[in-house]
UniProtKB/TrEMBL annotation:
An example molecular function term from Gene Ontology annotations: oxidoreductase activity
Identification of the protein by name: Gfo/Idh/MocA family oxidoreductase
Keyword field: Oxidoreductase
Organism: Quadrisphaera setariae
Classification via Gene3D superfamilies: Dihydrodipicolinate Reductase, domain 2, NAD(P)-binding Rossmann-like Domain
Length: 321
């Protein structure tokens, strides 16, 4: 569902990385659906979302519309009884996200956010390190995501909910809430861009913290004004985890043992090539696994985590107003 930038990358990654098939494309415009279907070699084109979700040859719907249409797209798929993977963020805000989660749970239909980082092997390594307590007591996360955009890109359009929050801050805030839990306090500063959206945002958040670890802090920076290192760190009292940029895609995982100014053991590095958006197929593979197993959510990105990310985005947005 959708014909934009991410659809092209997703279709390519899906074909290269899985045996799944893209059987139909849906758009608000019949012409755009046909153009995209022809360009991407997809068999059927639908000029409405209703027709797409009613297509009996469609097993799973991937909602890749603009942010404002995630809610309607997800609800259409759920009402049609089709498992649905919804591009990040799950919806515009936590209230909308809750509607998606409630509808999916009431219908018993599989629903997950296409927050692709959570499905990557690299993030699974992070998951294992955290579960195994390798970092000790975790006190902080810092993460940064800045990207240069063409001035005509939709991120500068207030009508399309542009700005650095929904497109970019989703990533660091998803990491911070996944690792440190729910946001309990937020302070943030936003710098306006002449287009009417925020150009950049810096935020410091307090979280509930990990079980038994007490409150923790995250520091997040996102910008549309230029490329930044896009690195992330998770700080523990036994070791610090380093994710060289881009932290949200495939790449190395570095564990640096704590040592202060004294001698410390060498960092442990798990090397992985950077494959960029080719990694988008992992989320599709996980959806297929879950649907085959009769699951309605994925343990890699449960809806509760998508909602926690949306609450964090809401808190940062409120703090910048
Ligand atoms: N996972 C990732 O790495 C990643 C990266 C980028 C974006 N995303 C997410 O994916 C979603 C879509 O982002 P996107 O970058 O693909 O947005 P986009 O290129 O602007 O496409 C969004 C929608 O706009 C419409 N559209 C496309 N071309 C158009 C045109 N020439 N004129 C008018 N409308 C047009 C299409 O819907 P219709 O055909 O129905 O009109 C399309 O589905 C966002 O929610 C974003 O957060 C994820």
């Amino acid at each position: 569902m959708g014909t934009g930038w991410i659809v092209e990358r997703f279709v390519g990654a899906l074909r290269a990385g899985t045996r799944q098939d893209v059987s139909a494309l849906g758009s608000r415009s019949g012409d755009r659906a046909r153009d995209a279907a022809q360009r991407l070699g997809v068999e059927r084109a639908h000029g409405s979302w209703a027709d797409l979700v009613a297509d009996p040859g469609v097993d799973v719907v991937y909602v890749a519309t603009g942010h404002a249409d995630h809610l309607a797209g997800a609800l259409a798929a759920i009402e049609a009884g089709k498992p649905v993977l919804v591009e990040k963020p799950l919806a515009l805000d936590a209230a909308q996200g809750q509607r998606v989660a409630d509808a999916a749970r009431a219908a018993g239909v599989f629903c997950a956010e296409a927050f692709w980082s959570a499905y990557l092997p690299r993030w699974d390594v992070v998951r294992q390190l955290l579960d195994d307590g390798v970092l000790g007591r975790v006190s902080a996360v810092d993460a940064d995501l800045g990207e240069h955009f063409d001035p005509h890109h939709r991120v500068f359009d207030p009508a399309q909910h542009g700005g650095p929050l929904l497109d970019l801050a989703t990533y660091p805030l998803a990491l911070a809430t996944w690792v440190l839990g729910e946001v309990t306090a937020a302070s943030a500063v936003g710098v306006p861009h002449p287009s009417g959206v925020l150009g950049q945002v810096g935020a410091v958040l307090q979280h509930t913290g990990r079980e038994g670890g007490g409150p923790a802090l995250s520091a997040v920076h996102t910008t549309l004004l230029g490329d930044t290192p896009t690195t992330a760190h998770v700080v523990g009292d036994r070791a610090t985890l380093r994710l060289p940029g881009p932290f949200y895609a495939s790449g190395d995982v570095v564990v640096v043992p704590a040592g202060g100014s004294g001698a410390r053991p060498d960092p442990v590095v798990r090397r992985e090539p950077e494959t960029g958006h080719a990694g988008l197929f992992w989320q599709a593979a996980e959806v297929a696994r879950c649907v085959a197993a009769g699951l309605t959510e994925t343990p890699l990105r449960p809806l509760a985590q998508s909602l926690a990310t949306l609450r964090a985005l809401d808190a940062v947005a409120a703090a910048t107003r």
